[in-house]
Automatic annotation (TrEMBL):
InterPro entries: GroES-like_sf (IPR011032), Lipid_raft_assoc_Zn_ADH (IPR052585), NAD(P)-bd_dom_sf (IPR036291). This is Uncharacterized protein. PANTHER family: PROTEIN AST1-RELATED, ZINC-BINDING DEHYDROGENASE FAMILY, PUTATIVE (AFU_ORTHOLOGUE AFUA_3G15030)-RELATED. Residues 273-321 are annotated as: Disordered.
């Protein structure tokens, strides 16, 4: 196996709420499918819910037999949304990755930076592209994800060139948006979360696609950093999220009915606040002076279909939770169909190849690395620091090999 050892180091979790234990003689995972690659891990990106968001940067040791894009010796990002396959777990020296979930890293991007953005990029791209219908085809030749999924999805997995959508994401992918409801260049999207890497990538992708972005953050912690940041991370409208009711009032006074899309990266309470901002019939809170020109024209769009009752509905995407309150008739709740990335090879390949082009062109800025630990022992240290709230405004990484 090209000098690959039979065993390697891996951090193993024996029970919940316990620290990871380093196993020094874990069997090296084997490739089972022709589209898989084996990667030697160099840098691991830590995420708040790590078993659900493994990502790492490393070097390809064994290439796929079916993909010509990924070659032996390439430096790559491995983005695993296939949580049940332990061969793809990040906390080990050698990791299996599907070629269509593997992204080549250009020389201009350090491995530490590369290990911070994969999962957030996929979540943001699917939230915008599937749940809001954003077309990225004019952004570094990106994909029109909604069209790609709806064109290739099949009710039968045996259909040539097609794939079967899992039942739990089928309605989201095929029925979430009525005709005429897709987000278009010039439309506004509100994104709640300043320290979240998913919010970071969502702001960048939205602006690259021509959307206007209102970012809701704790301005005492993140306001100066975001307002001073160069495009594409700097929002069009920065709103302090410290007082949610006030934040909702500002969004209503500033944008009114022009705000039809919102993405929450924090939790159920902030998602509920965004839901209130999207429901324009409610009474506005006092003392909410508009800060954006309300007379600017609304983006023209196609006539809505029957599901939209004569007017385009608003759309709220929750990455970590949705409001307890019913959505109602004018707001649609969305959950990101993250498993599309590994269940639908065409989607995975389109997103991975697009991320390569964005990085190569310097069009996407990786989240800041704000904490660095070393070795497998550093995994527990880094996770503990995150639990204590010591990592904010960027990502923590663990360096296994320079």
């Amino acid at each position: 196996m090209n000098g690959i050892p039979r065993t390697h180091k891996a951090a193993v979790l024996h029970s919940l709420k316990q620290p990871y234990v380093v196993d020094h003689a874990r069997p090296v995972p084997e490739l089972l499918h022709e589209w898989e690659v084996l990667v030697k891990s160099h840098v691991i990106g830590l995420n708040p819910i790590d078993w659900k968001a493994p990502e790492l940067a490393g070097r390809v040791i064994q290439a796929s037999r079916s993909s010509s894009r990924i070659k032996e010796g390439d430096n790559v990002i491995c983005i695993s949304t296939d949580y049940r396959d332990l061969r793809k777990a990040a906390y080990q020296e050698y990791v299996v990755s599907s070629s269509f979930n593997t992204v080549r890293i250009p020389p201009s991007v350090p491995l530490q930076s590369a290990a911070t953005l994969g999962v957030a990029f996929v979540a943001a791209a699917l939230a915008l592209g599937i749940c809001m219908g954003v077309d990225f085809s004019h952004t570094a030749d990106g994909p029109d994800l909604l069209e790609l999924v709806q064109k290739n999805a099949s009710s039968s997995s045996s259909s040539s060139g097609c794939y079967q959508l899992p039942d739990d994401i089928r309605a989201e992918c095929l029925e979430g948006l009525a005709p005429g409801e897709r987000a278009l260049p010039g439309d506004w999207v509100a994104i709640w979360g300043g320290s979240s890497t998913s919010a970071n990538l969502a702001v960048q992708l939205a602006r690259l696609a021509g959307l206007r972005v209102a970012t809701l953050v704790d301005t005492a912690k993140h306001g100066l950093r975001l307002s001073a940041h160069g495009s594409p991370l700097r929002p069009d409208l920065l709103v302090d999220s410290h007082d949610p009711d006030r934040a909702v009032a500002i969004l209503r006074a500033s944008l009114g009915p022009r705000l039809r899309f919102a993405l929450d990266t924090r939790g159920r309470d902030s998602a509920a606040a965004l839901g209130r901002a999207l429901r324009q019939e409610e009474e506005e809170a006092p003392d909410a002076s508009p800060v954006v020109d309300k007379d600017a024209p609304v983006t023209p769009r196609q006539s809505p279909g029957p599901a939209s009752r004569g007017a385009p509905r608003a759309h709220l995407v929750g990455l970590t939770g949705l409001p307890k309150e019913p959505a109602g008739e004018e707001v649609v709740y969305h959950t990101v169909p993250i498993k599309l990335y590994h269940e639908a090879p065409a989607v995975g390949e389109a997103l991975s190849a697009w991320l390569e082009r964005l990085l190569e062109a310097g069009a996407l800025v990786a989240p800041d690395v704000v904490a660095v630990e070393e070795g497998f022992e550093g995994i527990n240290i880094g996770l503990d620091r995150m639990r204590r709230g010591e990592v904010s405004g960027g990502k923590a990484v663990v360096v296994l090999e320079q």
